[in-house]
Amino acid sequence: MVKDEGLLPTSSFKARGLGVAVSMAKQFGIRHLAIPSNGNAGAAMAAYGAKAGIKCTVFCPDDTPEINIREISRLGAEIFKVNGLINDCGKIVREGKDEVGWFDVSTLKEPYRIEGKKTMGLELAEQLNWELPDVIFYPTGGGTGLIGMWKAFSELQKLGWVGKKLPRMVAVQADGCAPIVDAWRQGKETAELWENANTIAAGIRVPVAVGDFLIIRAVNESNGFAISVSDNEIVEARDFVSKTEGTLLCPEGAATLAAFEKSLSEGLVSNNDRVVLFNCASGLKYSLPKVKNTLNKDQAVDYSMF
Ligand SMILES: *Cc1c(COP(=O)(O)O)cnc(C)c1O
């Protein structure tokens, strides 16, 4: 099963966390928010910030997908392209806090984004009739969603709304940026900064995660695992699904399918498992291939070509 988060406001699951974070910021009377973003978080913050009447400043790596940059700008946020990665953007936000007075909405630097992301777990339980799946493949950057869902499941369990058996949580990363996979394989509790991070899956190009220990803990507590896939495998999975299922996955969502297939072949999951893959954003947010076919209406159409 695929949980398609591309259908949410601003077309990604970042709306869940930032809907709650911005609402709480408004309740606390905060006037200026700042965020480092690979695109979708900035767009979600800008959208809710616009509605709340809160000033928003966003810092993105300069190679963030153009559509995200323009979306953020159209939504009225102040946006800057930074010649670095998301951790470099995060440093600018952190170091400007005292001087500018903005509030830092970075992943796990405030408590509400994760509460919003928790709704993925609640919704899964509800949509699957309170029978949680066996395995969840989650494209992991900062890891808010994975940590949030794990929190949701344990809370549902305490309420007695779901049974004893919880899903195995699988952290999926790209070969070109896999700090959590590396750390998990080596049995470490925290991850090292990943040098020269590089992948087409921008949303999971996160060289260092503040919540690394929480991600690894959730993976281990759930008897899950961490796995990475190549950009080629991501592209293959994306193209396969668009042509056979009629769903435009984002590269990060496609990574979960590639990881699932790899896990099946390595015996990490079985054919009998009920598996949920997360498509975290609409495939329309990424540039699509150009089409070269043209037809001249003023000439005889050669129908033999169809
Ligand atoms: C943010 C994002 C991710 C990673 O989500 P986290 O919960 O921060 O790990 C994956 N894919 C897309 C498209 C994203 O925007």
Task: Write up this protein.
Helix 7 (144-159) links the parallel strand 6 and strand 7. The chain is globular. It has helices at 14-27, 40-52, 66-74, 86-100, 112-117, 119-127, 144-159, 179-185, 212-221, 231-244, 251-265, and strands spanning 2-4, 32-36, 55-61, 78-82, 103-104, 135-139, 168-174, 225-229, 275-279. Helix 2 runs parallel beside helix 3, helix 6 crosses helix 7 (144-159) and helix 10 (231-244) crosses helix 11 (251-265). Strands 1-9-6-7-8 form a five-stranded parallel beta sheet, with helices on both faces. The chain is of the alpha/beta class. The protein is 42% helix and 14% strand. It folds into two domains: 7-104, Rossmann fold (3-Layer(aba) Sandwich), CATH 3.40.50.1100; 113-285, Rossmann fold (3-Layer(aba) Sandwich), CATH 3.40.50. The structure holds pyridoxal-5'-phosphate (PLP). The site of pyridoxal-5'-phosphate (PLP) has 18 residues, from helix 2 and helix 7. The site of pyridoxal-5'-phosphate has 18 residues, from helix 2 and helix 7.
